[in-house]
Amino acid sequence: MEDKIKTLAEWIKDSTYTVVFTGAGMSTEAGIPDFRSKTGLWKKYDPIKMASVDAMHNNSREFYEFYRTRLKTLSDAQPHKGHKILAELETQGMIQAIITQNVDGLHHRAGSKRVIELHGTLREAECIKCGRIYEADVLEKSDIPKCKCGGLIKPGVILFGEMLPAEALRQADLETRRSHLFIVIGSSLEVSPANYFPLQAKHTGAKLVFINLDPTDMDDHADLLIRGKAGEVLEKLFITYFRS
Ligand code: NAD
Q: Which of the residues are catalytic?
């Protein structure tokens, strides 16, 4: 592990453009469960039932209950050392952008500036009819929250069955093509089209690094594979090679 962290530090120092791509595993050490690992949310809920457009319309009570539970988990969570280290590495000019599948806002709260949220955010909610934006706590005020116009208010996240936001996709595509080093942290890489970015980075010449607890189907594509917890790996990397 130490040798791999040393290699990663050298690659970061040599790289002229480094992009970090995070998934739910980035936030498990902050107390927010991921979806697919042993303690993940999908072990308790069926994703298509809970986090889909269909569920919002046809299984509304359970859908909103699921999101209230997720909001509660989020309100108790703080960015961990790994989030803060990524923000510090950006300040040092070592990281140029973060593309995240996470909806928890922890990169922003840790101080990262260039963050592209591919799957939206749980910080906000939106009326599906008139587009009015609300603070997320509107979801806690009634069982099935409705806008003044009568439309359902939906969490600001991208649900199964929805397109990803075009502007976020465009930005993520641009950052990916610019990258010389592309570091994936805490993602099973099972959700598409987000999982297309690491491969795209590789095709356009970037070195590809995975930091993940469990194996993924894309491990063979990685130039460097670090099996470990995001916060712990980033802390070792930072303390040994980047603390001024
Ligand atoms: P996933 O649940 O499919 O995979 C998480 C991966 O992270 C697993 O491979 C697991 O081994 C790894 N992991 C868990 N803890 C880790 C740790 N401490 N350090 C390193 N790796 C760790 O998550 P995904 O690939 O991001 O895709 C699923 C979807 O999950 C995304 O669309 C995302 O929007 C949504 N999601 C987001 C949050 C969040 O915002 N925090 C939480 C749950 C799910």
A: 119
Q: Do 22 and 183 touch, CB atoms closer than 8 A?
A: no
CA 159–ligand 1 middle distance (angstroms):
16
Q: According to the model, what pLDDT value does residue 76 have?
A: 84
Q: What is the DSSP string of 167-227?
A: HHHHHHHHHHHH-SEEEEES----STTTTHHHHHHHHTT-EEEEEESS--TTGGG-SEEEE
Q: Are the C-beta atoms of residues 176 and 201 closer than 8 Å to each other?
A: yes
Q: Which residue out of 4, 21, 32, 34 has the highest number of ligand 1 atoms within 8 Å of its CB and is therefore the one to mutate?
A: 34
Give the pLDDT confidence score for residue 51 in this predicted structure: 87
Three-state secondary structure call for residue 4: helix
Q: What pLDDT score does 242 carry? A: 95
Residue 42 pLDDT: 67
* Nearest alpha carbon to residue 218 among 244, 188, 194: 188
- Cα radius of gyration (the chain): 18
pLDDT of 39 reads: 65
The predicted model scores a pTM of: 0.93
Residue 117: CB within 6 Å of ligand 1? no
Q: State residue 152's pLDDT score.
A: 95
What are the residues facing 155 on neighbouring strands?
125
Give the residues of the chain that fall short of pLDDT 70.
37-45, 47-48
